């Protein structure tokens, strides 16, 4: 998975539809999420499309599997995941993920329907990080 800095660098050079294509591409690059993990427990509430996020950890580092039934939304969740993927849980728990995503200006780039679930995606990631960091 690309780093958030690499994605931002590419994103800044793109406009309009090209940014949509980049988000779709990011969604395609996510690790595959087995259908068995797409349950009510992994469903992110408040999203206009179905979004599933499954958190795992190894030696205190977080790793997430994610998927969506909508290509753009899958790209948005990939962007959220890119901000935290494989980082230490305590670092993610303390991180301002919203600020990390601010350069993408998603609220002005995408419709409110597409971005309404982003705070819930971030909350899920941070809650899981806090639980792992606390031991």
UniProtKB/TrEMBL annotation:
Residue ranges of every copy of the Fe-S metabolism associated domain listed in the record: 15-127
Highest taxon above the source species: Bacteria
Coiled-coil portions: none
SUPFAM superfamilies attached to this UniProt entry: SufE/NifU (SSF82649)
PANTHER family assigned: SUFE-LIKE PROTEIN 2, CHLOROPLASTIC (PTHR43597:SF5), SULFUR ACCEPTOR PROTEIN CSDE (PTHR43597)
Similarity comment: Belongs to the SufE family.
Protein name: SufE family protein
Organism: Pelagerythrobacter rhizovicinus
Origin organism lineage: Bacteria, Pseudomonadati, Pseudomonadota, Alphaproteobacteria, Sphingomonadales
């Amino acid at each position: 998975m690309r780093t958030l800095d690499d994605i931002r660098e590419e994103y800044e050079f793109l406009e309009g539809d090209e940014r949509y294509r980049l988000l779709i591409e990011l969604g395609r690059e996510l690790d595959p999420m087995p259908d068995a993990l797409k349950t009510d427990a992994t469903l992110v509430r408040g999203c206009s499309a179905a979004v599933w996020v499954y958190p795992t950890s190894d030696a205190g580092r977080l790793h997430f599997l994610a998927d969506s039934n909508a290509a753009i939304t899958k790209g948005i969740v990939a962007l959220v995941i890119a901000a935290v993927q494989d980082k230490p849980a305590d670092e993610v728990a303390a991180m301002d993920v919203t600020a990390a995503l601010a350069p993408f200006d998603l609220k002005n780039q995408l419709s409110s329907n597409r971005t309404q679930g982003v705070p819930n995606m971030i909350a899920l990631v941070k809650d899981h990080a806090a639980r792992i960091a606390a031991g």
